[in-house]
From TrEMBL:
The keyword Disulfide bond does not apply. This is lipoate--protein ligase. It comes from Limosilactobacillus ingluviei. It comes from the Bacteria. Pathway: Protein modification; protein lipoylation via exogenous pathway; protein N(6)-(lipoyl)lysine from lipoate: step 1/2; Protein modification; protein lipoylation via exogenous pathway; protein N(6)-(lipoyl)lysine from lipoate: step 2/2. GO terms for biological process: protein lipoylation. PANTHER family: LIPOATE-PROTEIN LIGASE, LIPOYLTRANSFERASE 1, MITOCHONDRIAL.
Amino acid sequence: MINDLRLEGHGLICYINDPAVIIGQHQNAYAEVNLPYLKQHDIQLVRRTSGGGAVYHDRGNIIFENIVVGDTTDFRDFQKIGAPIVAALHDLGVAGAEVRGRNDMAIDGKKFSGMAMVKANNAYAAGGTIMFDLDETVARTVLTPDIGKLESKGIKSVDARITNVKPHLPAKYQAWTSEDFKNYLLCHMFGVEKFADIPTYHLTEADWAVIDARQASRFATDEWNFGQNPGYEHYVSHHFPIGTVAFNFNMVDRHISEIKLFGDFFTTGNPAVIEAALQGVEYHAEAIRAALSTVNIERNLSSVSVDDLTALIMRML
């Protein structure tokens, strides 16, 4: 949408998916997902083009995506993206709904939505998931969250930090399906009484041809979605304010021989620049610090210090 169709202004896509696991652009699927369970239960794996963490979708989950072309002032502003959904929940009587942390929405402290963004030229896509009546048992089983991320938030289990929206709705809305809730959200956000009153763009055959071509060439391939599991000997991970950062690397004669950077951080840069800077570097704090100082960490990862990344690689965090 932000690369091909490029309709000027602000649009919104909202839909419900068949069972799928969606992972961030820089995540290692082999570390984030229970792949045997995923394949056994015919759950699709999809890698998005934005950062962020792994999420599970099913028919009880709603996906929303804001498409903004021409004005990127609000890029990275998750508060603005989540606010209309929180406002819609408040009007239903769910007073504890809020946008919180880096990119979450929560009810009474429990997460019901994670959001992500990706930018291309003068356009960006920003959206996320809304757990309305998601099968939490499947989500817990198919996702293998980073323990360091949970510990950094003082959480001992995945159950303690997530919730569906439906149990928090007043009794008169408990019969709502996911489709009912989706239609309510859209009508509320567009300020109309019924879904048919929302201005809608219908994809043409030409649009679908572009989508199908993108799928065939990249986004439906195992190479893109699963990627390669380096399986290197050494693995270090830490949850920073920007998100989880992990390095998987090998060493020969106390020098880094291969290295791969993973995580659920957001960046418009290229983390491979950091990997290249560390290739062949002596496994010593000063050498690693010097190598990292030659690249723009802010641009190619996010706001994390050279000293913190050095400490992580040296397993000192």
